[in-house]
Design goal:
Length: 145
């Protein structure tokens, strides 16, 4: 096999081995887009229903354009919503709202964040990012801030 033949075989092999990855990437992107609510002209996007937020005490959506979103009601004023990116800043686990501790708690290594996203206890040392949130027609909407 000469050099030209070898490069041709390597090129065909690389293309063939990467084809399944390309197909998987395209199919998952299509699926994600089809389940995502559109971003409105004012930048807000629907996260879910107020009834689900009331029922569960928190509303998690991991498939919207701004990123993962976890919404809770402000315990000091339940007409206000608090929305954070629930991705723990330590190693990326998804935090949940713990009403008893009045904190977002990470299940992996125990980091705790206040309702405004600031770190209460590590090992995380960076706050959760936050979103602007509001309610319209029984829907919870967020906008990147
Ligand atoms: S990933 Fe959250 S504390 Fe480690």
């Amino acid at each position: 096999m000469n050099r030209r033949e070898f490069i041709g075989w390597v090129g065909v092999g690389s293309l063939a081995s990467s084809l399944p990855v390309v197909i998987a990437a395209c199919s998952s992107q299509t699926k994600s887009e089809s389940t995502t609510n559109p971003v409105r002209a004012d930048g807000f996007q629907v996260v879910g229903k107020v009834t689900d937020l009331d029922k569960n005490g928190q509303l998690l959506n991991e498939e919207i354009a701004v990123g993962k979103v976890l919404v809770i009601k402000d315990s000091a004023n339940t007409s206000n919503l608090i929305a954070v990116n629930p991705t723990c800043t330590h190693k990326g686990c998804i935090v949940g709202w713990n009403k008893g501790q009045n904190a977002f708690v990470c299940p992996c290594h125990g980091s705790k964040y206040a309702s405004d996203g600031k770190v209460i206890n590590g090992p995380a040392d960076q706050p959760l990012s936050t979103y602007t949130a509001k309610v319209e027609d029984n829907e919870v909407l967020v906008k990147g801030s």
